[in-house]
Amino acid sequence: MLLKKPRFKLPQGQKSRSLNAAELDMLAMELDALRQQTLSELGEHDAKYIRKIVASVRYTAMAGRGLLFLGWFPPAWLAGTTLLGIAKIMENMELAHNVMHGQYDWMNDPALQGKSYEWDTVGTSDNWRKTHNFKHHTYTNVKGMDDDVGYGLLRIFPEQRWHPFYLGQPLYALTLAMLFQWGVAIQDLEIGKYLQGRMSKQEFMARWQPTKQKIIKQLFKDYVFFPAIAGPMAIPVFLGNLAANGMRNLWTFSIIFCGHFTEDAELFPKSVVENESRGHWYYRQIRGSSNLSGGKLLHLLSGNLSHQIEHHLFPDIPAHRYAELAPKVQEICARYGIHYNTGRFSKQFGQVLWRILRHSLPSQPKMAQVVQAV
């Protein structure tokens, strides 16, 4: 049961109010209760949902690849590429990402186990579980601890120290968007550390070997096997696979950046995680995340990361449940005086682009305002 608290009226221009230790504990109690209630309701409805997603991915990909075999006819090539791109988006976003969070472990289906699922991208699932499930979700938007902040390439927040390298970041951002699966694939390699001599060759090669094997396997499937069995249609099949992967990369980049780098998303110093309570962890997740308002198609194709706030609060709850949780979370935020960051895609993505452009230019790094228990 939700604990009733008075609503707070924030001063002009202030997004969120400071919470004391007792309020943070109460916030944790409310959100924990909401999580437990939802987990207790999981059942056949949720199992049927994810199995429908598995079937949709499979048959959409089959239809797309089948049409690409008629690829010398432009309408067939366009339709096939679009369907294959949608299948890849759904597999990465609504299926793989959510399954790898363990959202469906309770089903005891070997094909849907979070620790063993391998997804359709050049990066390994093991690396993703480390960089995303552990690092990013534990240290969301903590400077120097969350590798997703700019992906080691971009200056997104004014708290990041400026360097002339960042003058080119509009180009870097475009390149990252087009090749996003490759950025994810090499993220855990920490190539910069190796080049700077802060990682041994032995450690780097140990990280590189599984990544190399996955890259070879993925490239062979998309750019050798399917073009080869297409015979005279090899070229349009090759190009269709290339374009479908490009569609998936651009869309994934856009959704992920909208979820973390809008105008109101905040960056935190390392000090926030020292003796951090569960309530403050919840509080930080809300302040570091952004939602997208929209219809069911947007939620589906985003893997329900359009509800990024709910995902960061409850990463192990099946994502299709976030739509029903969102109004409850928003109501809790309103009562505690916490800013609930949401907006349409065009608004949120526009803010992301502005951040990329604005922070490519010199500016004095500022200290983040740390709103902790007082």
TrEMBL record:
GO annotation, biological process: lipid metabolic process
Gene Ontology CC annotation, any one: membrane
Q: What is this protein called?
A: Acyl-CoA desaturase
Give the GO molecular function terms. oxidoreductase activity, acting on paired donors, with oxidation of a pair of donors resulting in the reduction of molecular oxygen to two molecules of water
- Source organism superkingdom: Bacteria
ATP-binding as a keyword of this entry, yes or no, is no
Which regions span the lipid bilayer? 67-90, 171-191, 223-244
What keywords tag this UniProt record? Membrane, Transmembrane, Transmembrane helix
Q: What region holds the Fatty acid desaturase domain?
A: 76-342
**Is Disulfide bond included in the keywords of this UniProt record?**
no
Q: Name one Pfam family in it.
A: FA_desaturase
List the InterPro entries hit by this protein, alphabetically.
FA_desaturase_dom, Fatty_acid_desaturase
